[in-house]
Design a protein that fits this description.
The complex is a heterodimer of chains A (125) and B (205).
Chain A lengths: L2 H6 L14 E9 L6 H7 L5 H10 L15 H4 L1 H13 E9 L6 E5 L2 E2 L9
Antiparallel strand pairs in A: 1-2, 2-3, 3-4
Chain B lengths: L2 H9 L18 H13 L8 E5 L5 H8 L4 E6 L2 H13 L5 E4 L14 E4 L10 H12 L3 E7 L3 H10 L5 E11 L13 E10 L1
Parallel strand pairs in B: 1-2, 1-4, 2-3, 4-5
Antiparallel strand pairs in B: 5-7, 6-7
Helix pairs in contact in B: 1-2, 2-3
The chains are: A alpha+beta (125), B alpha/beta (205).
Bound molecules: S-adenosylmethionine.
């Protein structure tokens, strides 16, 4: 699971209203190189929840990879360094083992072999 | 990538070793899968550089085809852990990065509109009535650009009605009619059901 996926996911338990963003516990992660595509990054930037991405990168042990606050979109054309960092956080880091944690209920959704299990129990649907 | 090449690569991927009847697990064959994605890219530009979600991805056929045609980010979702493992191996063998997630499409909870295109071959609802419409409803919630889906030709009017009336589709068109030859995976399939007529739809949300 990469951080773009984490960025989209909310807790899906019935009745939960503050299920976003999910906490991230990363026991094992890997980094894999992806071709750099600046146009893609510029297009996706406005759709990203910045605080969720910063939190997820931090959970993987990258406290300084991204600025704390969402930068002004002008940085997308002015700073190659920013685009490279954004690219790395969004597309190159894979959580292999760990869990996603609902911020409201504390329910843990395990991630195993890179695949998060978001299946609900009967009483959660 | 050429259509023939795409079809060839899709023909090489591993499919359900142990199909589960209740989940309507049968693969989209390489002929149909390659044409579906090739049309999506070549005619509509809905794949290259896009974020694509594959609903009910099974062993990953449609997601892998999207990746081969240049999708930037793919996420495949299925209920079944075993199918997802196969999808993961298939992607790895082709050196493709595909995110996978185990989830019931019915209770998918996504925020935002990051996904551009949804591709799917949903359960036709022969086991659980209306499953394809459940998939479609969720696809309309997450896709911002287009949805490609297969539905039985016999349900064409119904699909059209729900797309416009319930999901506010801007556009819903049948791109082509296909003959879907369900391999005789299941004993309960009567002979005449083996070869069914299916529509390839493109919806704009
Ligand atoms: C007809 S198969 C298509 C498989 C694959 N997409 C392909 O084209 O080869 C339907 C898939 O949907 C999955 N499925 C069925 N019901 C589901 C649900 N409620 N949520 C998620 N996946 C489901 C099945 O496990 C199966 O892999």
């Amino acid at each position: 699971m990469r951080l773009l996926t984490h960025n989209m996911l909310a807790c899906n338990i019935k009745g939960v209203t503050n299920g976003y963003p999910l906490g991230l516990e990363a026991e094992k992660w890997v980094e894999k190189e992806v071709d750099f595509n600046a146009d893609f990054l510029r297009g996706v930037f406005p759709k990203i929840e910045w605080r969720a991405l910063v939190g997820a990168a931090r959970a993987l042990g990258f406290p300084d990879l991204l600025p704390e606050d969402a930068p002004d979109p002008s940085v997308l054309s002015s700073s190659d360094d920013f685009l490279r960092r954004f690219h790395r956080a969004l597309l190159e880091l894979h959580v292999e083992e760990g869990a996603l944690v609902c911020p409201e209920t504390g329910r843990r959704f395990p991630i195993s072999k890179g695949i998060p299990n978001m299946l609900l129990h009967e009483d959660e649907v | 990538m050429k259509l023939k090449q795409l079809e060839g690569l899709l023909g090489s991927i591993q499919q359900f070793s142990n199909p589960k009847v209740d989940l309507e697990q049968y693969p989209t064959g390489p002929h149909i899968a390659s044409r579906l994605l090739y049309t999506a890219e070549d005619t509509f530009g809905d794949v290259d550089g896009k974020v694509v979600a594959d609903f009910g991805c099974g062993c990953g056929t449609l997601g892998i085809a999207s990746a081969l045609l240049g999708a930037e980010y793919i996420i495949g979702i299925d209920l079944d852990a075993q199918a997802l493992q196969t999808a993961s191996t298939n992607a790895e063998n082709l050196e493709l990065d595909i995110d996978l997630m185990q989830c019931n499409i019915k209770s998918l909870s996504w925020s935002g509109r990051v996904v551009d295109t949804v591709v799917m071959n949903p359960p036709f609802g022969t086991r659980k009535k209306g499953s394809d419409v459940v998939f479609l409803s969720m696809a309309f919630k997450v896709a911002s650009q287009a949805i490609y889906s297969l539905h039985k030709t016999s349900t064409r009017e119904h699909v059209k009605r729900v797309a416009f009336r319930d999901f506010n589709a801007k556009c819903a068109e049948v791109l082509c009619e296909l003959r879907f030859d369900l391999p005789q995976l299941y004993k309960f399939h009567k002979k005449k059901e083996v070869d069914i007529e299916v529509d390839l739809w493109r919806f704009v949300p």
